[in-house]
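Field: COMPLEX_INPUT
Field: COMPONENT_COUNT = two
Field: RESIDUE_TOTAL = 631
Field: MODE = joint
Values follow.
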Amino acid sequence: MHSPDRTVQTPTGVAEPIPLRPVAKDVETRRVPFRGAGFSPKALWYVPPLVFLLLLAVWEAGSRFGLISPLVLPAPSEVLTAFRNLVESGMLYNHLAASLQRLVIGFVCGTILGTVVGVLIGLYSLARSAFRPLVAAIFPIPKIALLPLFIIWFGIGEGSKVATILFGSFFPMVIATYGGIDAVDRSLIRMGQSFNMSRAAIIRKIVLPSALPAILNGMRIAASISIILLVAAEMIGAEYGIGAYVLLAGNLMATDQLIAGVIVLSMLGLIVSWLISLAERHFLRWRN
Amino acid sequence: MSFTKTLRPWLGATLMAALMAMPFAAAEQAKADDKVVVGALRFTSHSAGFIAYEKGYFKEEGLDVEFKFFQAAQPIAVATAAGDVDFGIAGVTGGFMSLADKGAVRLVAGVLHEKAGVDGMMILASNKAYDDGLTSVDQLEGHSIAMTQVGSTFHYMTARIADHQDWTIDDVKLVPLQKVGAMIAALKSGQVDAMIMVPHIAKALVESGDAKMLGWLYDYAEYQISGLFTSVKNIEENRDMVERFVRAYARGIADFNRVMLAENPDAGEQEEMIKIIHNYVYQDRPFEKAAPPILAGSMNLNEGGAMDVTDIEKQMTWFQEQGLVTKDLTMDELVDTSFVETY
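Field: COMPLEX_OUTPUT
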C-alpha cells in the first residue's frame, strides 16, 4: 500500500503514477469512518440460556397444541416428569452408581494401557512394528458385533461391560499418544542430545511433556467413546445402569424416559469434558 | 447434451402413450390395485404372508403387495405408526402396547399362537445347569433365565411359566441380553441356566448337544404370541383394504397350517411350500440346508387369523401390573375385533 509506484488506469488507457500527496494544499481532508474491528464474535452469556428456553417453550407449546404428536417427540414436561420419577424412586442413584463404576474402571484401565502402549509405539521400533498394524486392524472392529463372543470371553457379569469400555478407550489413547510423540519437535530432542541429556531425561523432560496436549486430547475422545459404548456395554445382562435404562425405554417405546436417559448421558459427557479441561489447565500450565 | 435433454421428454411421452395403448388387462388391473406395503422379518412365522403373495391371494383381493424387510419386529411397528408400512406382524410386547397407547397401531388379527401338540417355543437348560440338577421345568425357581429384553415376549413367557408353578417371576433371575445370538452364547457357555427359544433353533441346540430340553411352553401357556397389526389410520380411513388384506392373509395361514403342520404331509405339496418360503427365509443357504429349519420352525398359526383377545387382555394386564406399560391403555386401543373372529 505504501509503494510509490502505484498506477491507475486513466480514460486514455495509459497508466499514470498516482501522486502521493494531494497537489493542492487547501483540499479538505476527507473524514473516513473507522472501518476496523468486527469479525470477532464474542460469546454473550445471556444468549445460550435464552435460546435454550425459547426452544423448550416452542417444543412444549407444539406438544400441548398437538402440533407435535407424542409419537414423534414427548413434551419437555413429560420428560421432566420421567426424570423426576427417576430421581424420586431412587433409581437414578442405582443406575448412575452402576454406570459410573463401569465407566471409571473401564476408562482408567483403558487409558493407562493405551498410554503405555502408545508410548512404546512412539519410542521403540520393535513395539512400533509389532503393535501399530494390530491397532489399525482391531480399532475399526465394531465392539457391538463381538458382543456374543464377549459374553463367552468375559461373562455376563461386570467383566464384559468393563471390557467393552476398556477396548473402546484403549485404541484412541494408543493412537493419540504415539501421534503426540511423533509430533514432538525434533530440534528440541536434538538440543537435549547436544546438552548430553540421558535418554531417560529426554523422554521425561522433553518427549512426554510435549506429547501431553495430544494425550489429553486423546483422553477427551476416549471418554466420549466410553460413554457411547456404555449403552452397548449394558446391553448384556445389566439390571442397572443409565445405558440399560435407555435401552429399556427404547424397547418399551417410552420416549419420555428415553429422552430423560439421553439427557443424563449427555450431562455425564459434559462433566467428563469439564474434568479433562481442569486436568489440561493443571498439567499444561507450563505452556503459559 | 442439450439434444438428449430436449429429446428425453418426447421419449417419455412416446413411452407413456405406448404403455397406455397396451391392450393387456393386467396393466389396467395393476393400476386399479391398492398399493400395500408389508413389513416382514425373514422368519418362518411370517410365511403366511409370503404364501398369500406367491399364490396370488393378495392379487385376487385387488392388493398390490410389496414386502419391506426388517431386522426386528419393533421397527416395523414404528414404521407403521409413521405411515411408511401398512401391515406388520409383531409379538404382543410392552413396546407394541406403548405404540398402541399413543394411538398409532392396532392389532387386527392373530398370527402365532401356542397350541398343545404343535412344536412351539421350547424351554431349554444349559448343560451345566442340567448336570447340576435342573432337569425339569418345575425346578426353574431360583435359576437364571436369558431373555432378549425387559418387556419382550420372552419376559412374558417366563412370567406365564412362573404363574403355572407356585412361584413368581421375582423368584428367577432374568438376564436381558438383547439378541437371540447373545442368548444362545450365554446358554451354551453355561452363564445362564435356562431360556425359552423358537423351535428350529432350540431343536438344533438339543441335537448338537449344546443344551438340554426341559419342556414345551404349550404345556404351561397356550398363548397368543404375535398378531397382525396395521395403523389406526388404515383402520379408520381404509377399512375395506384392511378387510381384504386380512382375508387374503388368512388364506395364506390356512395353506401353511394344512401343509406345514400336517401329521402325514403330502411330500410334494410340502416341498413346494417350503420352496415358496425359501424365497424369503434362509435365502443364503441352499434348499437342502434351508428345508429342515423351515420345517422345524413351523409353529401353529391362528386359523382364519382368529384372535385370542382373552389372552391378549391377560398380557396387557400383566404388562401394566409390572409397570412396563401405562395403565391408560385399554383393549379398544390395542385391538380391533371387527376384522376376524375373536375368542
